[in-house]
Fold this sequence. Notes:
The chain is mostly helical. It is about 60% helix and about 10% strand. α1 (about 5-40) packs antiparallel against α2, α1 (about 5-40) packs parallel to α6 and α2 (about 50-70) runs antiparallel to α6. The model has no long low-confidence stretch (mean pLDDT about 90).
Amino acid sequence: MTKVLRPLIKSNLAILSQKVALLDLLVARNGAKQASIDFQTMCPIVGASIGQHFRHSMDHIELAALVASSNSTDSTLPPRALHYDLRVRGGTLEKDMVESRKRIVGVIDIFQSLQTVSSDNDDGNALISSSVTSYFNLNADSNTEIGLPSTIGRELGFVAHHAIHHMALVKIIATKTLNIKEGELPNGFGKAPSTILFDRQQT
């Protein structure tokens, strides 16, 4: 596994593990029934629930993980496509905490399988440099998606970076609406690595 692929997998696994830890914390605090309610509770500050932010960020992480795990390193084939804005909003995964947790664990399994793809640096480099096209809807006046050339490695980095910002919003929901103490949350929850590094330098 290459020096680039390893941290990409590690960062995504860390975020996914924090998601599972928060769901388990909700259950441990007040039981499964109340945890399900908390998962769906709208935060007036953020204007959304934990379930909504988990579903949204998981849509991105899962898509990138699936493409990475199924991607062919054959450069003669057309690049795979990631359509980030083709999402199901308001569905079961926003409201059913058990199903949301199953989804997260499933994606953890995908990333763990990527860890064992190969210890060969050439294979790892081929995977992260494999071409993909990432599609986004960047104009609210049109349904037209814009396709941008990218790589598997870049997209694995993007979805982790994207998820961290949603975790920051989840932290606000947890602490301000559900009254969870910050110390109960996993270490570094909702903080970008650059912020953690900066905070360390200030001490």
